[in-house]
């Protein structure tokens, strides 16, 4: 069993600053929702999600489901193929980061 030393990140993004990346899906969807003047509650209710779920995705504490992303794509007239590709890339990045952290590889600092 591998032991991880150092801080444990509960967010699916390594830091809140990762969520703030203008190219992350949560950031993009939050901006589109806000530009439409929709509250988290109204947006969630429209698709059967709780306000807390929408908030947790937008804050980076939960990773959005593909269903959520495709509903957002439909609502905001985004290309669903682009959204699926972007979602898959963020899933891979998330998995790689978590695996490296679990194996202690993220602490090597680029040493060969």
Task: Please sum up the structure shown.
The protein is mostly helical. It has helices at 16-19, 25-35, 40-47, 51-59, 66-75, 80-103. Residues 1-13 have low confidence and may be disordered.
Description:
By secondary structure, the protein is an all-alpha fold. The chain has a single domain, classed as lambda repressor-like DNA-binding domains (434 Repressor (Amino-terminal Domain)). 59% of the residues lie in helices and 0% in strands. The longest helix has 24 residues, at 80-103. The radius of gyration is 16 Å and the shape is elongated. 19% of the residues are buried.
Task: Lay out the secondary structure.
Blueprint: H1 16-19, H2 25-35, H3 40-47, H4 51-59, H5 66-75, H6 80-103
Helix pairs in contact: 3-4, 5-6
Features:
mainly alpha; single chain; 112 residues; 434 Repressor (Amino-terminal Domain); 6 helices; elongated; disordered N terminus
